Amino acid sequence: MALAVDSAGTRTAPPPPPPTTQAQRPAQLAQAPAQVPATPGGLTPQAQAARAEIDRRLDGTGTFGVQTHGDDQAIASTLAGLSPSDANAVIADLQAAGKLDDLADTVTSGSLFTGALSADERKQFFTDMAGKLDGTNLAHLSRAFDTIGGDNGREGAGYVQDLANAVAAHSSAQTKIDFVRALAPDTVAAGKDSQFDNGLLSRTSYYGNPQAVAVGEVLSSLRGAQAQEAFNALDSNQQRAVFQAAIGETSTHYTGQQSANWTPGYDTRLFGEITTALATMPDAHQKAQAFAVGAEVMRGERPGNAAVLTGQNTSEPQRAMQEMAAALGTILDSDPSGIVNDLSQFRQPPAGSGDVATANGNALSSYARVMLESGEGPQGRLGAQMALVAAGSEGQPTRDAAFDHAVDGQYRTATGLGYFIGAASAAARQIKTDNAEQNQLIGNTLASGLTLLDKFGIAAKVAAVAKDWVRTATTSLNGAGATDPTQALTDAALPTDAAGNDSSLSNSRSAFLSTLNFVSANAKP
User: Fold this and answer.
1) pLDDT tens digits, residue range 17-53?
2) Does residue 261 have a pLDDT over 80?
3) 107 near 74, Cβ under 8 Å?
């Protein structure tokens, strides 16, 4: 996982990769010959011929055995001219023989006297391979290009991302899923989470495993059940690595800058695209896990006190956190009740499930804190999400009926509302120390959310219940004075009779209060 900004100055990076020079000339792609069956356990004649030609070109056909641009073009066109089955067989054979790294090096390394595929030729080569190879062999190819420029070279990371973009654009959904599954262990490989570039008067470090970026690019191109299958192919550590790599974190040190100070940077484009894909997953539990892992990454980028005291740039990580929170909101918007209720369930995930514990409220409170800090728009979105949790997902006619409603013996609305109130209150306490100010902050958040509820595309009955809860909660908060907002929101949540006395069912009240108290005691925004 990338370090927070206040510790960025302790990072070190290895020596830079050597520069490359690329010749420019379009590759001539061959046509596949008629297919001839392979001999049992071997390559087809076409694949054998292609393998021999690639070996010859890897050895170099120029003067004194120099490898030429024509050799690079011939390698690319030879593979492009094969059928998918033969192309897979040849790539697998090159991998088994330890020559796939040589192929990657050959088509990307050039000088005044030797060749390399041009950027356009390389893009076409990646496109051809994405359309022919299966997920396993595309993963082999990705690892091969990752070796370019050494273990910490930025050049290889760029090739890996280019290949992943080709897979995202041109491979079948099943190939993409298999690609993600094949590269899953590589996303957490030791010593692969940073690369660097040296500028004329600066040095920039890039944080994130290149194969995790590749997985993220491909995962972001999937939707629905296929996105869920690919996400499930990763365990929680691998999911975290993908989200971490997707924030595009960099740090740049300029000549003359104090050695402990680095200028941070972020590009959260891929983080947002991944959350957009995962929001389409059909299962609320998987959405909750994605939300929790993404929120953990976001929380890890918050500048610490040391960063503020030493004058480090804290505005850039704060900006990135706002973008990450907005992206995570896309997941939460897709099923507020289902996701929040699921988050409340996992104090200790089942052994071997690969899930992360979420019942402590860290994920939702971290998200709520950023949204509360980000102004009226994000606050309104958070308020609307809380209101929808209060309304429940079962279409009950009133907020009291929603609170007391049970599904299979589970009081999901009461549990989810207790979880959300606990998380939001914990977040407010981190921003404001005075109870009255906390009440005002949450009250304004709910009031802003009232105007957004009609934009969620929800049923009129659910919207009416959500709006009624917001009005009740804001009234309670406005009259709370110096009372803790948790108590004011609890008063608004519990059903009452005509005399204003608590009329909630004992089981729903117990589910609400036990969840609220646990989150209030344990959440760390």
Assistant:
1) 444 444 333 433 344 444 444 444 489 999 999 999 9
2) no
3) no
User: Reduced to 3 states, what is the DSSP secondary structure of residue 422?
Assistant: helix
Residue 171 in this model has a pLDDT that exceeds 80:
yes
> Would you say residue 427 lies in a domain?
yes
Residue with tokens 């022919």: 132
DSSP 3-state assignment of 410? strand
User: Is 319 within the bounds of a domain?
Assistant: no
- pLDDT for the residue 114: 66
Q: What is the pLDDT of residue 26?
A: 40
10-14, 167-171, 211-215, 365-369: the lowest-pLDDT one: 10-14
Write phi, then psi, for 251 (nearest 5 degrees): -145, 135
Using only C-alpha atoms, what is the Rg of the chain? 27
Q: What is the DSSP string of 159-216?
A: HHHHHHHHHHHHS-HHHHHHHHHHHGGGGG-TT-SEEEEE-SSEEEEEES-HHHHHHH
What span, in angstroms and rounded, lies between the C-alpha atoms of 487 and 498?
Answer: 20
Strand partners, 407: 410
Whether residue 426 is contained in a domain is answered as: yes
Distance CA 202, CA 186 (A): 30
Mean pLDDT, all residues of the chain: 89
Residue 394 placed within a domain = yes
- 497: containing domain: 335-524
Nearest-CA neighbor of 274 among 238, 246, 309, 248?
246
Phi then psi for residue 13, to 5 deg, are -130, 150
pLDDT of residue 310: 57
Q: Total domain count for the chain?
A: 1
Residue with tokens 């997920």: 135
Mapping DSSP onto H, E and C, the string for 119-133 reads HHHHHHHHHHHHHHC
Split at pLDDT 50, 70, 90, the class of 308 is: low
Q: Kindly list the strands in the beta sheet with 202-207, ordered across the sheet, starting from the edge strand earlier in the chain.
A: 194-198, 202-207, 250-254, 263-265
- Determine which helix (DSSP H) or strand (DSSP E) holds 43, and give its type and residue range: none
Distance CA 347, CA 24 (A): 58
Phi, psi of 265 (to 5 degrees): -150, 155
Q: How far apart are CA 487 and CA 477, in angstroms?
A: 9
Q: Tell me if 115 sits within 8 A of 27, measured CB to CB.
A: no
Q: Could you write out the DSSP letters of every residue in 436-471?
A: HHHHHHHHHHHHHHHTTGGGG---HHHHHHHHHHHH
Return phi, psi of residue 98, to 5°. 75, 20
Tens of pLDDT, residues 193-221:
888 888 778 888 999 999 999 999 999 99
> What pLDDT, on the 0 to 100 scale, is given for residue 313?
76
| Whole-Å CA distances, 495 to 489, 498, 505, 520 | 12, 10, 9, 21
| CB distance 250 to 266 below 8 Å | yes
Q: Quick one: average pLDDT of 317-340?
A: 97
Identify the burial level of 150 via C-beta atoms within 10 angstroms of its C-beta, where 0-12 means exposed, 13-18 middle and 19 or more buried. Answer: middle
**Closest by alpha carbon to 452, among 463, 441, 443, 460?**
463
